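REQUEST ID: PR-0412
SUBMITTED BY: lab tech R.K.
PRIORITY: routine
TASK: structure prediction, single protein chain
INPUT:
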Amino acid sequence: MIKKISLYMMIMLCIVVAGCSMNDSSSSSKEDVVRIGYQKNGPLIILKSLGTLEERLKENGYKVEWNEFQAGPALVEALNAGSIDFGRTGNSPPIFAQAADAPFVTIAAGKSKFEGSGILVPEDSEITSIKDLKGKQVSFAKGSSSHYLIVKALESEGLNYTDITPVFLSPGDARVAFEQGKTDAMVVWDPFTSSTEVNMNATLLVNGEGFTTDRDFFIANEVFAEKHEDLIAVILEEIENSSVWANNHHEALIDMLAPILKIDEESIKMAIERRVYGVDSLNETIIKEQQEIADTFFRLDIIPKKIDVKDVMDRQ
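STATUS: complete
OUTPUT:
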């Protein structure tokens, strides 16, 4: 009986040890993978398609795991939950995340792409100026760069946000409502802007010039950023390299993006020809841009508290 018990205990001990070994192996494996969140309409899809980051990180003993997200807020949520390590989003999701006390750090910014962001009206619309938007139904994604753009555009003409009827819709749903005549204007970004211009002959009433820079922002999980400055440096370098490629190979970029985005080549061409891809270090100008967005959203009660955007920015 004693022998049987001893044998049983030895077996259980082996199982426990094996289990610990498996857990350690799994943990080590997880640490050897860099998990990146991306959106199809952002610069990281170019990096993913070129495959150069995989080659660089392999030299450092790491693999790349790509995770696709439909929108920036979901990407930021995954970053804060520790499901991904690094990602790209627009200018507004980091502001909401910071207002919610999420642990993340903003690493760098993209180039301004204001020309592809703007307010669209139907080609036969009676709306010919920003002032004509008074009393109209205007669609845009709540809390997005477009939300900020419409506020600033209205204020530039002495109008208030309350002078329009906001219709909160995602870009895809906004396009449908716009086509069906259910809204009078739509505020959106490329390639949704260019596609609406090309396929509906819509009029771009104004673009983002003077209202928003509409930058990309590259963000990282706080713990990952602290532990892996070397890997982040490699990632940013490869984003810049892929950006240089994109800026100098428009035809190849059109061929790459059209099937991924499922948007016609003419619309893709218009979108990429009015923007520049690249990475900018965080500086006082960019910080000021973000702070103004945060202050505007706080003033409109879109975020619950006033924040200082410098608190989550790594300017090194």
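NOTES: Residues 254 and 299 are 40 Å apart (CA to CA).
REVIEWED BY: pending
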